[in-house]
Design a protein that fits this description.
14% strand, rod-shaped
């Protein structure tokens, strides 16, 4: 059994059991299918290849969301710290 984590904590996230599969149908251009066949070759099925690519994409997207949230928190803290430093510098400039 293969377990993999996906998603952003608290937002559409969970544990995915690699053996739990859902059958679906998608329509792809001939060019895309040719590219998949060329890259995947005989090593893996189209389904396995597409699943691996989409899993990587979902992980990158989840990570990007976390990083964006972290950057927002850092920038908020930076604004407050910069204001505090400016206050200290103004105070020091008035001292003999």
């Amino acid at each position: 059994m293969s377990l993999a984590w996906y998603g952003t904590p608290g937002v559409n996230s969970g544990w995915y059991n690699g053996s739990m599969k859902e059958k679906t149908s998608i329509t792809l251009s001939k060019e895309v299918l040719t590219g998949i066949d060329r890259i995947a070759g005989s090593k893996q099925s189209r389904s396995a290849f597409i699943e691996a690519v989409l899993t990587q994409y979902l992980r990158r997207q989840a990570r990007a969301q976390v990083e964006a949230r972290d950057l927002e928190l850092i920038n908020k803290a930076a604004d407050e710290l910069n204001a505090e430093v400016e206050d200290v510098l103004r105070y020091q400039a008035t001292q003999p």
